[in-house]
UniProtKB/TrEMBL annotation:
<keyword id="KW-0808">Transferase</keyword>
<comment type="subunit">
    <text>Homodimer.</text>
</comment>
<dbReference type="InterPro" id="IPR004839">
    <property type="entry name" value="Aminotransferase_I/II_large"/>
</dbReference>
<keyword id="KW-0663">Pyridoxal phosphate</keyword>
<dbReference type="InterPro" id="IPR045088">
    <property type="entry name" value="ALAT1/2-like"/>
</dbReference>
<protein>
    <recommendedName>
        <fullName>alanine transaminase</fullName>
        <ecNumber>2.6.1.2</ecNumber>
    </recommendedName>
</protein>
<comment type="pathway">
    <text>Amino-acid degradation; L-alanine degradation via transaminase pathway; pyruvate from L-alanine: step 1/1.</text>
</comment>
<keyword id="KW-0032">Aminotransferase</keyword>
<dbReference type="GO" id="GO:0030170">
    <property type="term" value="F:pyridoxal phosphate binding"/>
</dbReference>
<dbReference type="GO" id="GO:0004021">
    <property type="term" value="F:L-alanine:2-oxoglutarate aminotransferase activity"/>
</dbReference>
<feature type="domain" description="Aminotransferase class I/classII large">
    <location>
        <begin position="79"/>
        <end position="456"/>
    </location>
</feature>
<dbReference type="Pfam" id="PF00155">
    <property type="entry name" value="Aminotran_1_2"/>
</dbReference>
<comment type="similarity">
    <text>Belongs to the class-I pyridoxal-phosphate-dependent aminotransferase family. Alanine aminotransferase subfamily.</text>
</comment>
């Protein structure tokens, strides 16, 4: 430990931290017959839809099955569009097999389909050569962050990230030795992003580092907000004014629930703002098949699109990516199914649309349910879950609980979360793992448990909180 890379020691990733390790231990204890006041662990800590009972989308799994075991194409009665898609993907693979390496930045056919998806979404051209496939969005984000890993004029580089934020960013910045420059989202305006706060954060950080990047998560994780178009325009103007590389984390773009909320991609808005933004602002946008209506976390499929990158810099990025050989070809296959889903009139369309609609409709109901229940509980306030897959309620912590937490060497929200896990089996992530304003306490919970289990979880939560409050009153 005395000579390990200190950045690795500094790195923390809250959604898979000590609470999750303890949750896994409890599961093993239950399997061995341990007597506890609950029968199962509810993992509300991470956005893993299938682990929480969501069924796979049939079209995606049928195509993945066919490319994995091509004999199924001829021997099994899959729809004709599934078979055709599998044949096209296999033809684009070396040796006609998904067991071969692809190009390091992805199979060209699938990159072209992603570009077509972006064009349909935004109404503006997308060059497939600026699309790079990845093992989920996370790998692509980390690859672009690495471009900023250098000191300039004796000062380190910094990247602006929202607080609260998804811990991938804080962990990656720590790993790469980049300065974390936090800007606070405004909880009072449903986690809105104020430009004055961006200016404050940038001004303060510029005294100790060269701020070179700005991360925006839309829809928000862990906060569930959806940015308005006007807000996006003001963010783009800010990034252009300060020559910042903008990271647009848009992996939840299908997950929009609240009435009046609508997803606008940063790419679409910057194109429609015109000059000088449309040709000068450097933008990297990210998408994943792990979220949305698909929830295919384990297949590890995603992409990024680069806009206005210096061609030589982009070439260096792709060179760096080539050292990792290629993202999984089954993940790329899932990406193809998302970028080019069944169309009206095709055999798989009706079932695909039915399954997609059912998933998003159920998530919509659960988003409302979870906010309503938390807001009905004394000591809680929870903003409307406009999008994504999480709620991030604020909790009033009794003074005695804060003292008890200090005595155990824990931050108060982690103390609460450990108590909740041990007494109910519910695993959440304390707000301190995402960042929060000093003096406030939060936690993140997913909305992913299926409706019956979610209702059970919320009822248990209500009983626990009443007991906790009485204990530390």
């Amino acid at each position: 430990m005395e000579n390990i890379n200190p950045n690795i020691v500094k790195l923390e990733y809250a959604v898979r931290g000590p609470l999750v390790i303890r949750a896994a231990e409890i599961e093993k204890e239950l399997e061995k017959g341990a007597q506890k006041p609950f029968k199962r662990v509810i993992k509300a800590n991470i956005g893993d839809a299938h682990a929480m009972g969501q069924k796979p989308i049939t079209f995606i799994r049928q195509v993945v099955a066919c490319v994995s075991y091509p004999e199924l194409i001829e021997k099994y009665d899959f729809p004709s569009d599934v078979k055709q898609r599998a044949r096209e993907i296999l033809k684009a693979c070396g040796g006609g097999s998904v067991g071969s390496y692809s190009m390091s930045h992805g199979i060209e056919l699938i990159r072209r389909h992603v570009a077509e998806y972006i064009e349909r979404r935004d109404g503006h051209a997308s060059d497939w050569r600026n699309v790079c496939l990845s093992a989920g969005a996370s790998n692509a984000i980390k690859n672009v962050l690495q471009l900023l890993c250098n000191d300039i004029n004796g000062q380190p580089s910094g990247v602006m990230i929202p607080i609260p934020q998804y811990p991938l960013y804080s962990a990656s910045l720590a790993e790469y030795g980049l300065e974390q420059v936090g800007y606070y989202l405004n909880e009072e305006t449903n986690w809105g992003l104020d430009i004055s706060e961006l200016e404050r954060s940038l001004s303060e950080a510029s005294k100790k580092c060269n701020v070179r990047g700005l991360v925006v998560i839309n829809p928000g994780n862990p906060t569930g907000q959806v940015l308005t178009r006007e807000n996006i325009e003001s963010i783009l103007k800010f990034a252009h004014k300060h020559s910042l590389l903008l990271f647009a984390d848009e992996v939840y773009q299908d997950n929009i629930y609240a009435e009046g909320s609508k997803f606008y991609s940063f790419k679409k808005v910057v194109r429609e703002m015109g000059e000088p933004y449309s040709s000068e602002l450097e933008l990297a946008s990210f998408m994943s098949v792990s979220k949305g209506y698909m929830g295919e976390c384990g297949l590890r499929g995603g992409w990024m699109e680069l806009l206005n990158f210096d061609p030589e810099v982009q070439a260096q990025l792709f060179k760096c990516i080539s050292a990792m050989l290629c993202p999984t070809t089954l993940g790329q296959t899932a990406v193809d199914c998302v970028a080019k889903p069944p169309q009206p009139g095709e055999p798989s369309y009706e079932l695909w649309l039915k399954e997609k609609t059912a998933v998003l409709s159920s998530l919509n109901k659960r988003a409302k349910m979870i906010a309503d229940v938390f807001n009905s509980m004394p000591g809680f306030t929870c903003n409307v879950v406009q999008g994504a897959m999480y709620a991030f309620p604020q909790i009033e912590m009794p003074a005695k609980a804060i003292e008890a937490a200090k005595a155990e060497g824990k931050v108060p929200d982690a103390f609460y979360a450990f108590k909740l896990l041990e007494e109910t089996g519910i695993c959440i992530v304390p707000g301190s793992g995402f960042g929060q304003k000093p003096g406030t306490f939060h936690f993140r919970t997913t909305i992913l448990p299926q409706p019956e289990l979610l209702q059970q979880m919320l009822d248990t939560f209500r009983d626990f909180h009443a007991k906790f409050t009485a204990e530390y009153a």
